[in-house]
Amino acid sequence: MTTIYLLRHGALAGDSRERFVGQIDLPLAPEGVRQAEAQAGALRQQDIGIIYCSDLQRCRQTAAIIAGATGAPIVTRAELREISLGDWEGLGRREVAVRFAAEFAARGRDIEHYRIPGGESFADCRRRALAAWTDILGCGNERVAVAAHAGVNRLLLCGLLGMPVAELFRIDQDYGCVNIVEQHGAHTCVRLLNGRPVDVGTAECHRCA
Fold first, then answer.
1. What is the pTM of this model?
2. Using CA of residue 13, residue 14, residue 15, residue 21, what is the dihedral sign?
């Protein structure tokens, strides 16, 4: 059995939470560092064999904090980056809805396949994230931590939970959250979904397939 602790990085420096961040390379805020430390504390006793992370610094910082607590090596994977939002990155959500009204509406009609100018669709992001996920499942370690992003996590979890990508925003992914996925051969169990670090030791199965 392989157990994967799928994490979202902590809160970001300079993020108003009302703008599109995408692949802007923001560091963790002090609050985000504390959230990563809480994740590290929860994973300290979980015998983590390896840590995978996105190459954006917010995930690399998260992975480094966890590595400091667990002693596990870090492998950086660009395929785990957050979705690229192209021309919208750094802009406020309300600004985009006005300046790019037609494009914003088109994305709302087809959230999975619409490709933002200069960026990616969620389908594009899912393809590359799944390639990394397949490698992670085959890494040979029984317990793995993955430090990634809300968009990437939602896409991976949609597949694991049997949900269409169009419903990805039904899956909450708070800053500093923990998801636990257990893989028994072809059998998958999502044991914790958008949990707090303190939930790691008491998680019950959320969905099996």
1. 0.94
2. negative
What is the maximum alpha-carbon separation in the chain? Answer: 50
Q: Collapse the DSSP code of 7 into the 3-class scheme (helix H, G, I; strand E, B; otherwise coil) and give the result.
A: strand
Record the tokens describing residue 130, joined without a space. Answer: 């799944």
Query: Are 160 and 168 in contact, with CB atoms under 8 Å apart?
Result: no
Under 8 Å between Cβ of 85 and 180: no
| Domain CATH code at residue 185 | 3.40.50.1240
In a domain, 78, yes or no: yes
Residue 142 class from Cβ within 10 Å (0-12 exposed, 13-18 middle, 19+ buried)?
exposed
Residues 6+ apart with CB under 8 A from 59: 9, 53, 80, 147, 148, 149
Helices (H), 44-195: 57-70, 93-99, 101-109, 122-137, 150-161
Residue 102 within any structural domain of the chain: no
Q: What was the pLDDT predicted at 185?
A: 82
Domain assignment present for residue 88? The answer is no
Q: Rounded to whole angstroms, how far apart are CA atoms 30 and 34? A: 6
Task: Select from 138, 127, 139 the least CA-distant residue to 79.
Answer: 127
187 has pLDDT over 70: yes
Per-residue pLDDT, averaged over 160-178, amounts to 97
Provide the residue range defining the domain that includes 23.
2-83+120-208
Number of domains the chain is built from: 1
